[in-house]
Design goal:
Blueprint (H helix, E strand, L loop, with lengths): L3 E10 L2 E11 L4 E5 L6 H8 L11 E4 L2 E5 L2 E2 L3 H5 L2 E4 L11 H6 L8 H6 L4 H13 L15 H15 L3 E5 L7 H18 L2 E6 L2 H7 L2 E6 L2 E7 L5 H8 L25 H9 L1
Parallel strand pairs: 3-9, 3-10, 7-8, 8-9
Antiparallel strand pairs: 1-2, 1-4, 4-5, 5-6, 10-11
Helix pairs in contact: 5-6, 5-10, 6-7
Protein backbone atom coordinates (compact mmCIF):
# COMPACT_ATOMS: atom_id res chain seq x y z
CA UNK A 1 0.00 0.00 0.00
CA UNK A 2 1.43 3.35 -1.05
CA UNK A 3 1.68 6.32 1.31
CA UNK A 4 0.18 8.70 -1.28
CA UNK A 5 -1.90 7.89 -4.37
CA UNK A 6 -3.11 10.75 -6.57
CA UNK A 7 -5.03 10.35 -9.81
CA UNK A 8 -6.33 13.05 -12.13
CA UNK A 9 -6.04 15.82 -9.54
CA UNK A 10 -7.13 19.18 -10.94
CA UNK A 11 -7.57 22.50 -9.14
CA UNK A 12 -8.53 25.86 -10.60
CA UNK A 13 -8.64 29.30 -9.04
CA UNK A 14 -10.85 31.26 -11.40
CA UNK A 15 -9.30 30.94 -14.84
CA UNK A 16 -5.96 29.84 -13.46
CA UNK A 17 -5.41 26.09 -13.34
CA UNK A 18 -3.11 25.53 -10.36
CA UNK A 19 -3.01 21.74 -10.73
CA UNK A 20 -3.59 20.00 -14.03
CA UNK A 21 -4.41 16.27 -13.95
CA UNK A 22 -1.72 15.31 -11.46
CA UNK A 23 -0.84 11.61 -11.31
CA UNK A 24 1.52 10.72 -8.47
CA UNK A 25 2.36 7.79 -6.22
CA UNK A 26 4.71 7.99 -3.24
CA UNK A 27 5.67 4.72 -1.59
CA UNK A 28 5.90 4.30 2.14
CA UNK A 29 9.28 5.23 3.57
CA UNK A 30 10.28 7.48 0.66
CA UNK A 31 11.66 10.99 1.04
CA UNK A 32 10.60 12.95 -2.03
CA UNK A 33 11.38 16.54 -3.00
CA UNK A 34 8.87 18.72 -4.84
CA UNK A 35 10.57 21.47 -6.81
CA UNK A 36 9.31 24.24 -9.04
CA UNK A 37 9.33 27.99 -9.52
CA UNK A 38 6.82 30.21 -7.72
CA UNK A 39 3.29 29.42 -8.83
CA UNK A 40 4.16 25.95 -10.07
CA UNK A 41 1.65 24.28 -7.74
CA UNK A 42 3.86 22.84 -4.97
CA UNK A 43 2.01 24.32 -1.99
CA UNK A 44 -1.37 23.69 -3.59
CA UNK A 45 -0.48 20.04 -4.08
CA UNK A 46 0.64 19.66 -0.46
CA UNK A 47 -2.59 21.23 0.79
CA UNK A 48 -4.62 18.77 -1.29
CA UNK A 49 -2.67 15.80 0.07
CA UNK A 50 -3.31 17.03 3.62
CA UNK A 51 -7.01 17.48 2.92
CA UNK A 52 -6.85 21.22 3.58
CA UNK A 53 -8.12 22.13 0.11
CA UNK A 54 -10.68 20.48 -2.16
CA UNK A 55 -10.07 19.91 -5.85
CA UNK A 56 -12.41 20.88 -8.68
CA UNK A 57 -15.59 18.88 -9.14
CA UNK A 58 -14.65 15.69 -10.94
CA UNK A 59 -11.10 16.83 -10.19
CA UNK A 60 -9.56 13.49 -9.32
CA UNK A 61 -8.78 11.56 -6.17
CA UNK A 62 -6.26 11.66 -3.35
CA UNK A 63 -5.61 8.69 -1.05
CA UNK A 64 -3.20 8.66 1.87
CA UNK A 65 -2.17 5.50 3.73
CA UNK A 66 -4.84 3.60 1.82
CA UNK A 67 -7.69 5.92 2.88
CA UNK A 68 -9.55 8.55 0.88
CA UNK A 69 -8.63 12.17 1.48
CA UNK A 70 -10.83 13.56 -1.28
CA UNK A 71 -12.58 12.76 -4.52
CA UNK A 72 -14.99 14.41 -6.95
CA UNK A 73 -14.29 17.83 -5.50
CA UNK A 74 -15.12 16.91 -1.91
CA UNK A 75 -12.94 16.28 1.11
CA UNK A 76 -13.72 12.84 2.56
CA UNK A 77 -15.86 12.67 5.69
CA UNK A 78 -13.26 10.73 7.66
CA UNK A 79 -10.38 13.02 6.82
CA UNK A 80 -10.18 14.51 10.32
CA UNK A 81 -9.13 11.17 11.79
CA UNK A 82 -6.68 10.63 8.95
CA UNK A 83 -5.11 14.06 9.51
CA UNK A 84 -3.89 12.85 12.91
CA UNK A 85 -1.45 10.65 10.96
CA UNK A 86 -0.33 13.46 8.64
CA UNK A 87 2.16 15.94 10.06
CA UNK A 88 2.48 19.26 8.24
CA UNK A 89 5.49 21.59 8.58
CA UNK A 90 4.75 25.02 7.13
CA UNK A 91 7.10 27.71 5.89
CA UNK A 92 5.87 30.09 8.61
CA UNK A 93 6.30 27.48 11.38
CA UNK A 94 2.68 27.59 12.68
CA UNK A 95 3.64 27.50 16.33
CA UNK A 96 1.53 29.41 18.87
CA UNK A 97 3.84 32.27 19.75
CA UNK A 98 2.51 32.92 23.27
CA UNK A 99 2.91 29.28 24.32
CA UNK A 100 6.14 27.62 25.37
CA UNK A 101 7.89 25.34 22.92
CA UNK A 102 7.01 22.34 25.09
CA UNK A 103 3.29 23.21 25.03
CA UNK A 104 3.41 23.63 21.26
CA UNK A 105 4.96 20.18 20.89
CA UNK A 106 2.36 18.70 23.27
CA UNK A 107 -0.32 19.89 20.85
CA UNK A 108 0.76 17.00 18.64
CA UNK A 109 -1.36 14.84 20.97
CA UNK A 110 -4.63 16.56 20.04
CA UNK A 111 -5.72 13.87 17.60
CA UNK A 112 -5.55 11.21 20.33
CA UNK A 113 -6.67 12.84 23.59
CA UNK A 114 -10.23 13.81 24.62
CA UNK A 115 -11.25 17.20 23.28
CA UNK A 116 -11.65 18.70 26.77
CA UNK A 117 -8.03 17.91 27.63
CA UNK A 118 -6.83 19.52 24.43
CA UNK A 119 -8.96 22.60 25.02
CA UNK A 120 -7.71 23.04 28.58
CA UNK A 121 -4.14 22.05 27.78
CA UNK A 122 -4.15 19.17 30.24
CA UNK A 123 -1.48 16.59 29.46
CA UNK A 124 -0.19 13.62 31.42
CA UNK A 125 3.30 13.30 32.81
CA UNK A 126 4.01 10.55 30.29
CA UNK A 127 2.92 12.81 27.43
CA UNK A 128 5.19 15.57 28.72
CA UNK A 129 8.15 13.18 28.90
CA UNK A 130 7.48 12.02 25.36
CA UNK A 131 7.37 15.64 24.18
CA UNK A 132 10.65 16.35 25.95
CA UNK A 133 12.19 13.29 24.31
CA UNK A 134 11.08 14.57 20.91
CA UNK A 135 12.59 17.97 21.65
CA UNK A 136 15.83 16.34 22.74
CA UNK A 137 15.95 14.41 19.50
CA UNK A 138 15.84 17.62 17.43
CA UNK A 139 18.28 19.38 19.75
CA UNK A 140 15.73 21.74 21.31
CA UNK A 141 15.23 20.36 24.84
CA UNK A 142 17.07 23.29 26.48
CA UNK A 143 14.54 25.70 24.94
CA UNK A 144 11.48 23.70 26.09
CA UNK A 145 10.23 26.40 28.48
CA UNK A 146 10.88 29.30 26.12
CA UNK A 147 8.03 31.14 24.40
CA UNK A 148 7.84 30.06 20.77
CA UNK A 149 7.81 33.69 19.60
CA UNK A 150 11.31 34.23 21.04
CA UNK A 151 12.88 31.38 19.04
CA UNK A 152 14.70 31.72 15.74
CA UNK A 153 13.11 30.41 12.55
CA UNK A 154 15.30 27.32 12.48
CA UNK A 155 14.51 26.57 16.13
CA UNK A 156 10.80 26.90 15.49
CA UNK A 157 11.00 24.54 12.51
CA UNK A 158 12.77 21.94 14.62
CA UNK A 159 10.01 22.37 17.19
CA UNK A 160 7.45 21.74 14.44
CA UNK A 161 9.27 18.51 13.54
CA UNK A 162 9.22 17.47 17.21
CA UNK A 163 5.46 18.08 17.21
CA UNK A 164 5.14 15.66 14.26
CA UNK A 165 7.03 13.05 16.27
CA UNK A 166 4.67 13.48 19.23
CA UNK A 167 1.76 13.31 16.79
CA UNK A 168 3.13 9.91 15.65
CA UNK A 169 2.70 11.02 12.08
CA UNK A 170 3.21 8.36 9.42
CA UNK A 171 3.48 10.98 6.69
CA UNK A 172 5.16 14.40 6.99
CA UNK A 173 4.44 17.12 4.43
CA UNK A 174 6.95 19.98 4.64
CA UNK A 175 5.99 23.06 2.63
CA UNK A 176 9.10 25.18 1.91
CA UNK A 177 10.41 24.52 5.45
CA UNK A 178 13.81 26.18 4.85
CA UNK A 179 12.80 29.04 2.54
CA UNK A 180 13.42 31.74 5.15
CA UNK A 181 16.32 30.14 7.01
CA UNK A 182 20.06 30.78 6.94
CA UNK A 183 22.21 27.97 5.45
CA UNK A 184 23.25 26.49 8.81
CA UNK A 185 19.66 26.35 10.07
CA UNK A 186 18.44 25.00 6.73
CA UNK A 187 20.93 22.13 6.87
CA UNK A 188 19.88 21.30 10.44
CA UNK A 189 16.18 21.23 9.57
CA UNK A 190 16.75 19.07 6.48
CA UNK A 191 18.96 16.72 8.49
CA UNK A 192 16.14 16.32 11.02
CA UNK A 193 13.64 15.49 8.27
CA UNK A 194 16.07 13.00 6.76
CA UNK A 195 16.65 11.47 10.19
CA UNK A 196 12.98 10.79 10.92
CA UNK A 197 12.63 9.36 7.43
CA UNK A 198 15.65 7.11 7.86
CA UNK A 199 15.21 5.99 11.46
CA UNK A 200 11.43 5.97 11.83
CA UNK A 201 10.54 5.13 8.22
CA UNK A 202 8.21 8.11 8.17
CA UNK A 203 7.34 9.10 4.60
CA UNK A 204 8.46 12.68 3.91
CA UNK A 205 7.42 14.96 1.05
CA UNK A 206 9.23 18.30 1.11
CA UNK A 207 8.82 21.21 -1.29
CA UNK A 208 11.99 23.18 -2.00
CA UNK A 209 13.34 26.04 -4.05
CA UNK A 210 16.88 25.15 -3.04
CA UNK A 211 17.80 22.34 -5.41
CA UNK A 212 21.06 21.62 -3.57
CA UNK A 213 19.03 20.36 -0.62
CA UNK A 214 16.85 18.18 -2.83
CA UNK A 215 19.99 16.54 -4.25
CA UNK A 216 21.58 16.19 -0.82
CA UNK A 217 18.67 14.68 1.11
CA UNK A 218 16.26 13.09 -1.39
CA UNK A 219 16.77 10.35 -3.95
CA UNK A 220 13.63 11.24 -5.87
CA UNK A 221 12.36 14.57 -7.13
CA UNK A 222 9.03 15.59 -8.61
CA UNK A 223 9.32 18.78 -10.68
CA UNK A 224 6.23 20.91 -11.24
CA UNK A 225 5.61 23.65 -13.81
CA UNK A 226 2.30 25.39 -14.41
CA UNK A 227 0.50 22.81 -12.31
CA UNK A 228 1.87 19.81 -14.20
CA UNK A 229 4.51 17.22 -13.37
CA UNK A 230 7.29 17.65 -15.90
CA UNK A 231 9.84 15.33 -14.32
CA UNK A 232 9.62 12.49 -11.78
CA UNK A 233 12.88 10.67 -11.18
CA UNK A 234 16.32 10.65 -9.63
CA UNK A 235 17.70 13.84 -8.07
CA UNK A 236 21.09 12.96 -9.57
CA UNK A 237 19.88 14.41 -12.89
CA UNK A 238 19.34 17.88 -11.44
CA UNK A 239 22.20 19.71 -13.12
CA UNK A 240 22.04 23.37 -14.11
CA UNK A 241 21.63 22.34 -17.73
CA UNK A 242 18.78 19.95 -16.97
CA UNK A 243 17.00 22.60 -14.88
CA UNK A 244 17.25 25.00 -17.82
CA UNK A 245 15.72 22.33 -20.07
CA UNK A 246 12.83 21.93 -17.64
CA UNK A 247 12.20 25.54 -16.70
CA UNK A 248 13.89 27.84 -19.19
CA UNK A 249 14.33 31.33 -17.73
CA UNK A 250 12.38 30.32 -14.62
CA UNK A 251 15.26 28.01 -13.66
CA UNK A 252 16.92 31.07 -12.08
CA UNK A 253 14.35 30.81 -9.27
CA UNK A 254 15.62 27.33 -8.41
CA UNK A 255 18.83 27.77 -6.48
CA UNK A 256 21.69 25.42 -7.35
CA UNK A 257 24.68 26.89 -5.53
CA UNK A 258 27.05 24.00 -4.96
CA UNK A 259 26.60 24.51 -1.23
CA UNK A 260 27.56 20.93 -0.38
CA UNK A 261 30.48 20.38 -2.76
CA UNK A 262 33.09 20.49 0.00
CA UNK A 263 30.84 19.32 2.81
CA UNK A 264 30.36 15.96 4.48
CA UNK A 265 26.96 14.72 5.69
CA UNK A 266 26.18 15.43 9.32
CA UNK A 267 25.94 12.41 11.57
CA UNK A 268 22.38 11.43 12.40
CA UNK A 269 21.21 12.01 15.97
CA UNK A 270 21.52 8.60 17.60
CA UNK A 271 20.72 8.92 21.29
CA UNK A 272 17.70 6.82 22.19
CA UNK A 273 14.68 8.83 23.39
CA UNK A 274 14.35 6.48 26.41
CA UNK A 275 17.71 7.69 27.72
CA UNK A 276 16.57 11.28 27.62
CA UNK A 277 13.21 10.45 29.22
CA UNK A 278 15.07 8.96 32.19
CA UNK A 279 17.34 12.01 32.39
CA UNK A 280 14.39 14.41 32.19
CA UNK A 281 12.44 12.45 34.79
CA UNK A 282 15.38 12.35 37.18
Amino acid sequence: MAAIEISGLTKSFGRNRALDRIELTVERGEMVALIGASGSGKSTLIRHIAGLLAADRAGGEVRVLGRAVQGDGRVARGVRALRSEIGVVFQQFNLVGRLSLLKNVLLGNLGRVPRWRGTLGVFTEEEKLQAMAALQRVGMDRQAGQRASTLSGGQQQRGAIARCLVQRARLVLADEPIASLDPASAKRVMEMLADINRRDRITVVVSLHQVDYAIRYCRRVVALRDGRIIYDGATSRLTRGFLRELYGDSSEELILTGAFEDDEPEAAVDEHPEAFVARAAG
